[in-house]
Amino acid sequence: MPELPEVEVTRLGVVDHISGAKVQSVRLGKPLRWPLGCDPQQLAGQRVRGVTRRGKYLWFDLGEAGGLLLHLGMSGSLAFLSGDSVAGGAGIPAPGPHDHFDLVTSRGSLRLHDPRRFGAVVWGPSKEEGMPGRLLQSLGVEPLSEAFTADRLRQGLQGRKVSIKQALLAGDVVVGVGNIYASEALFRARVHPATAAHRVGPQRCERLVQHIRAVLAQAIEAGGSSLKDFRNAQGNQGHFQLMTAVYGREGQPCMTCQTPIKRVVQGQRATYFCPRCQR
DNA sequence: ATGGGTACCTGTCTGC
DNA sequence: TGCAGACAGGTACCCA
User: Fold this and answer.
1) Quick check: is A276 catalytic?
2) Is the per-residue pLDDT at A240 higher than 60?
3) CA-atom Rg of chain A in angstroms
4) Catalytic hit among A11, A53, A56, A154
5) Residue numbers in A 167-196, CB below 7 Å of strand B
6) Is residue A58's pLDDT more than 70?
7) I need a surface site. Which of A212, A214, A244, A271 has the fewest CB within 10 A?
8) With a 7 Å cutoff on the CB, does A30 touch strand B?
9) What's the pTM?
């Protein structure tokens, strides 16, 4: 489900609620992608210091007690449930069949809902060590940071024979660009998705940087987007649905030139593009 | 090092 | 209506 914008919207939705809250207990549902990696008891009594994002991961800082690295996978969403967020102040609702993790705190419960269970919550002594360290170490540059430049992108694409679409998705050059925004950014930058990554030159790198930034920032500003059922941390649907130019629009006329949008499969993932605008 | 394929799991939609 | 099959926003890992 979530690409960088949805993860950032999720972070923004929970950070003020959870920061400073004291952990009371941890509830685990069905197994997620990896085990928690610590005794849940050891987290009790710790205070959440803050929540930061790296790519599509969220790091919940527990100070001396390390922290929790969370990934939403394909179908995950987070909610912060306080007693009075429920009608009548009746308390926190019982977890449903797809609620697989609760961080119960003094202020309410941080709950992960994840039907497909590709998501994960893993503990580490810091985000540089243990399992979190392993997961974060090979990530590429943050697309919304100053460090994401055309030169940097070009350098990352050097020697890569895979398609530019697959290289963007791989996450070791630039993070956070998922299947939808990859198609959208390539369309906006007028780059054909099957172009070999190493053949994308300086000008197209420049346009890609600009449009990857723009499409991600726009989606965050809009409160996240979703094609299906993305919920932010308040349980609201993103008030804005991303108006995709190409994603999911096979056969529909390109908004620029009216040519029918094509769908192809690259690395087992669907890619949508305009065969005329993107070369 | 790179790249291709597989695996994880469940819900929803499509076509017969 | 029922059912099989395809497909879905992600990414680690195995093997060539």
Assistant:
1) no
2) no
3) 20
4) A56
5) 167
6) yes
7) A214
8) yes
9) 0.95
The Cα A262–Cα A178 span in angstroms is 19
Give dist(CA A250, CA A272) in Å, integer: 7
How far apart CA A213 and CA A208 sit, in angstroms, is: 8
Residue A90 pLDDT > 80: no
Nucleotides of B under 7 A from a protein CB: 1-11
* HSE-CB of A59 using CA atoms within 13 angstroms: 21
Contacts of A138 (CB under 8 A, 6+ apart): A172
| Strand blocks (E) in chain A | 23-28, 50-54, 57-61, 67-71, 77-81, 99-105, 109-113, 120-124, 262-266, 269-273
The least confident of A193-197, A241-245, A257-261 is A241-245
- The nucleotide whose C1' lies nearest the CA of A230 is C9
What are the tokens at A6? Answer: 């949805």
What is the amino acid identity at position A208?
A: L
How far, in Å, CA of A7 to CA of A202, rounded? 30
Coarse DSSP helix, strand, coil percentages of chain A, rounded to the nearest 5 percent? 30, 25, 50
Q: Provide the CA A118 to C1' B7 distance, Å, integer.
A: 11
